[in-house]
Amino acid sequence: MSVRTFARIALPLAAVASLSGCGVNTIPTKEEVAKARWADVESSYQRRADLIPNLVATVKGYAAQEKSVLVEVTNARARATSVTVDPTKLSDPSAVANFEQAQGALSSSLGRLLVSVEKYPDLKSNEQFLNLQSQIEGTENRINVSRRDYNEAVRDYNTTIRTFPAVIGAKVIYGSKPLQPFKATSAGAQNAPTVAF
User: Does this model's pTM top 0.85?
Assistant: First the structure.
């Protein structure tokens, strides 16, 4: 093999090797990974924005239904315990009738509570509150993981475009600029929703 033939074969191979060492494929791949991680961050925030208000409304609905039954029972109990019959007045039919009426109202309220409990073997608002708490915690964890993954992808990309030999391809071919990592704002840290009942 002549020197000339060797040069014809070696020169293109050297060019390919030098370009591959400059991050020609690595840089756009890492940039796209970082952009995808940012989309995950936005998706997690959107999930929170969509999910939490709906869960809060569900909990409010269960709590309101159960509250009305429990308030009725509490009021009837208060009325029933406020009516007493002095043992010396047991012969007074109106005193006994008032006592019986108050106790009857409590019995009626307890009956409605029992019907409610039969429909719902356990009070559902407690279960819904626990579910809301779990969903909020899970959502916030997803957001945290998404932000961490994004920051890791940005770190990897920024390191690649600043290190040799990829810095050559980053500057000459792509004009790459460092991406910004996620930083929490001190004035609201992306404004997690307020849950108020």
Answer: no
Which residues have a Cβ under 8 Å from the Cβ of 169 and sit 6 or more positions away? 19, 22, 23, 24, 27
187 within domain boundaries: no
Our count of domains for the chain comes to: 1
Residue corresponding to tokens 């959107």: 46
46-86 tens-digit pLDDT: 888 787 777 777 777 777 766 776 677 677 767 666 777 67
Contact 22, 165 (CB under 8 A): yes
Cβ(74)–Cβ(88) below 8 Å? no
Q: From CA 76, how far away is CA 34, in angstroms rounded?
A: 62
CA distance 151 to 34: 8
d(CA 52, CA 65): 20
> Per-residue pLDDT tens for 109-136?
666 666 655 555 455 666 777 777 788 7
Closest Cα partner for 135 from 74, 82, 195, 89?
195
Give the residue among 181, 187, 196, 191 at the shortest CA–CA distance from 146. 181
CATH of the domain at 164: 1.20.1440
Q: Contact at 8 Å (CB) between 139 and 51? A: yes
In the three-class reduction of DSSP (H, G, I as helix; E, B as strand; rest coil), residue 37 is classed as helix
CA atoms of 120 and 74, how far apart (whole Å): 19
Q: For 183, which DSSP code? A: -
Q: Which domain holds residue 140?
A: 13-174
